[in-house]
Amino acid sequence: MAGVTVSRVAGSHCVTTAPCVSIGDNQHERLGFRFDVTFSHTIGDVNQLTYSSSLLPSDPSTGITITTEKQGTSSHIKTFKEATAHPLADHSCSLFDQGAYVESVTYACQNIGNSFKPEVQMLEIDHDADTGGFATLGFNGHKTADLEWDSLGVGSDLKTDTTGDYVKAKLEALATVGGITVSRTTASASKFQWFVTFSSQGFMTVDAKNMGPLPTMILSNSLTKSSVVLDPATGANLVQASVVAKGASGSATSEGESPFATYIEPAAISAPHTTTVHGGTVLQRGIHEPMMAKNTLTWEQESYFTVEARDRFTNRIRQSGVQEVQIVNTHAGAGGSLDNGTFTLSFRGATTHAIGHDAGVWDVETALESLETVGDVSVASANNHSNGGRTYAVTFRTD
Questions:
Q1: Domain boundary among 72, 104, 127
Q2: Are 281 and 358 members of one domain?
Q3: Which of 207, 226, 303, 356 has the most CB atoms around it within 10 Å of its CB?
Q4: 255 in a domain, yes or no?
Q5: Do residues 205 and 125 both lie within one domain?
């Protein structure tokens, strides 16, 4: 069970009809511990814990008592229109008003009575006695470890996966997959079907991965058998295998539905999951050819590629980092006036040439960008001081 915290009150045993009793030499029959269990990640009223006991000594007073100290509530949960671009953009669909449940009011976008419909996807594999090799399944940017057809008795495999547990374990190892159930059926003597159900109750963090319509699993097929036509692309006898389209006739698959719209806030940027994509086109012999700048450069032609920042779950991070702004103030001493002289600025060991006391923003910007340690900066002047000094706001656009 995930998302619980447990604290123990040592040296006491508490029951509903008596106060906590401290340990004493004459209180052997009341000795014990109290454990307070808080369901920190589960929202609302939850089922009460049950127990089995083999505590000693065997005495009618020896046992376990479970009580609910504070009932969980879900009065802070709100639902929103699925069509809203951002789920916090429209509060008119709230099921609660000032924390109180509003039963008599009917909202245009009311979700009362709407339940979660789990998505069901199906993997289908034809096979024969000579089938071998492996396959992988991709889901939402992540890919499983190899799904072996026959492990030759070394471990689990697709061939003997009658319960679906083998495929289930491989998929649930992915960070992008929540809790799922998998079952396998034998459609014919030469065809297995795995049904993957993405279940969600909507109140656990992991459930957000399974809400509503989901991307279709992507099969990478390296399964082979001898009784099919030679594949001209790979030279291998490939097994016919596929992830069947959701909702296909007779497939018993379905697209998920949810009364909630999930908004994903990206986590911190992860370098291993950040990706690059090729740039635009490059002119070669009068023809605009695709720019393959990740691995190919063209002599005296501009080439570039785009870095797409992602978090460890492969979610795109579209907002840019916060650009640092540093303020440079020039001013005269008390009662004085700044009307002559120069100053310099230093950054990471490099120093600008002399800058005039009344330099404009362009002069300061040019001086800074002439340093090898400074990238692209922009300089704005906030105001001119009555004593001749100035304020410069320097924004570091690149490192």
A1: 72
A2: no
A3: 207
A4: no
A5: yes
The tens digit of pLDDT for each residue in 163-219 reads 999 999 999 998 888 889 999 999 998 899 999 999 876 656 666 778 888 889 999
**Is residue 318, in this structure, part of any structural domain at all?**
no
Strand partners, 284: 287
Whether residues 350 and 376 fall in one domain: yes
Structure tokens at 149: 């057809």
**In sequence order, what E strands does 269-397 have?**
275-278, 281-284, 287-290, 305-308, 325-329, 342-343, 346-347, 350-351, 355-356, 377-384, 390-396
The continuous run of DSSP H or E covering 132 comes out as strand 132-139
380 with 390, same domain: the answer is: yes
Domain that holds residue 134: 119-244
As a whole number of angstroms, the distance between CA 68 and CA 319 comes to 45
Total domains present in the chain: 5
Same domain assignment for residues 91 and 195:
no
In angstroms, the Cα distances linking 113 to 95, 116, 383 are: 12, 10, 60
Q: Clarify whether residues 9 and 36 are in a common domain.
A: yes
The C-alpha atoms of residue 51 and residue 35 are separated, in whole angstroms, by 13
Does 340 map to a domain?
yes
Residues β-bridged to residue 282: 289
Tens of pLDDT, residues 13-53: 444 433 333 333 333 334 567 788 887 666 667 788 888 88
Q: What is the DSSP string of 141-185?
A: TEEPPPEES--TTSS--STT-SSSHHHHHHHHTSTT--SEEEEEE
pTM of the entire predicted model: 0.46
Provide the CB-side half-sphere exposure for 236 (13 A, CA). Answer: 13
Q: Which of 341, 342, 345 is nearest to 371 (CA)?
A: 345
* Contact present, 215 and 314 (Cβ < 8 Å): no
Structure tokens at 7: 């604290």
Shared domain for 134 and 201, answered yes or no, is yes
Give yes or no: residues 157 and 218 share one domain.
Answer: yes
Q: Decide if 173 is inside a domain.
A: yes
CB neighbours of residue 340 within 10 Å = 9
